[in-house]
Every structure is written in structure tokens, then in C-alpha cells.
Design goal:
four-stranded antiparallel β-sheet; Alpha-Beta Plaits; binds cytidine-5'-diphosphate; alpha+beta; binds magnesium ion
């Protein structure tokens, strides 16, 4: 069993896609074990995406991520990290496989509805960014 962090990004919340995204996760065997709606400050978004600090899209991405409320989720299941990434699809919705969240729902490479940890290492950084251990139900 593995835990991963997913975020429904501000575009997903704005476009009433919270239920649709969570439905896809739940129907594919992932269990929601923590959930919170919150509005990140620019600084908090920068801290979350610190790994991308030297990328050209960092400033725009962190402005977008602090442009409205998001929903943070911990998802638990067998191979939860890769399963979540598979359900999300490629970063660029135009390149994502049909049936994935990003291909079906996303509007652009930046406003791509969801985030999911990309490795065990990133999950270990990202889950405690939002949740303490007593907020996660095993
Ligand atoms: O989210 P994912 O792990 O698929 O992609 P990433 O490479 O870790 O990039 C993080 C986020 O930055 C993406 O989900 C996009 O929202 C944004 N991004 C962007 O705006 N332009 C790019 N060329 C690449 C990523
Ligand atoms: Mg990533």
C-alpha cells in the first residue's frame, strides 16, 4: 500500500470538477484518506513547487496555483503514485491519452486540473506539506 498527494488545481475547482476528479480516483481503486480545501498564498505555491524554481514556467505556475482555492487529497492504494499519474495523463492535455483526466477535462498545459506526486520521494515531501500524520486515515 502506498500514499500519494493529489491536488485539484484552481481551474478544476472553478470549473466544478471536484466531484468528477474524485469519482475517477475512487472508481479506480484509490481511497481518499485525507482531504482539505484551501487557498495557497503565492509563497506557499512557490514552496510546494520549489523543485521547478529555475524553470521558465515557475512564476506563472505559482501565480496560477495561488489564484483560487484548491482541494488537497491523500490517495491510498496499491501503486497509488503510478496509478494516480496514469489516471491524470500527461502534463500537456494535448499529449495525454484519451480517457485520462487531463485529456478529457484540461484546458491547457498550465491549467491541467490535477497534480499527483511523481515518485515516492516527492510524495514524502508533498503529503506533509498539506497534512500531518493524524489527519491521514489509514
Ligand atoms: O504536473 P506534472 O508532474 O505532470 O508536470 P511538471 O513537469 O511537474 O510541471 C508542474 C506543473 O507546471 C504542470 O502540471 C503544469 O501545471 C505546469 N507546467 C507548465 O505550465 N508549463 C510547462 N511547460 C510544464 C509544466
Ligand atoms: Mg510534477
Amino acid at each position: 500500500m502506498e500514499n500519494t498527494l493529489s491536488l485539484i488545481k484552481p481551474d478544476g475547482v472553478r470549473r466544478n470538477l471536484i466531484g468528477e476528479v474524485i469519482r475517477r480516483f475512487e472508481q479506480n481503486g484509490l481511497k481518499v484518506t485525507a482531504m482539505e480545501m484551501l487557498w495557497l498564498s503565492k509563497k506557499e505555491a512557490e514552496g510546494f513547487y520549489i523543485i521547478h524554481k529555475d524553470r521558465p514556467f515557475y512564476d506563472s505556475l505559482t501565480s496560477f496555483m495561488s489564484s483560487g482555492p484548491i482541494v488537497a487529497l491523500v490517495l491510498r492504494g496499491e501503486n497509488a503514485i503510478s496509478k494516480t499519474r496514469e489516471l491524470m495523463g500527461a502534463t500537456n492535455p494535448a499529449e495525454a491519452v484519451k480517457g485520462t483526466i487531463r485529456r478529457d477535462l484540461a484546458e491547457s498545459i498550465e491549467a491541467n486540473v490535477v497534480h499527483g506526486s511523481d515518485s515516492k520521494g516527492s510524495a514524502i515531501f508533498e503529503i506533509p506539506y498539506f497534512f500531518s500524520s493524524i489527519e491521514i486515515y489509514a
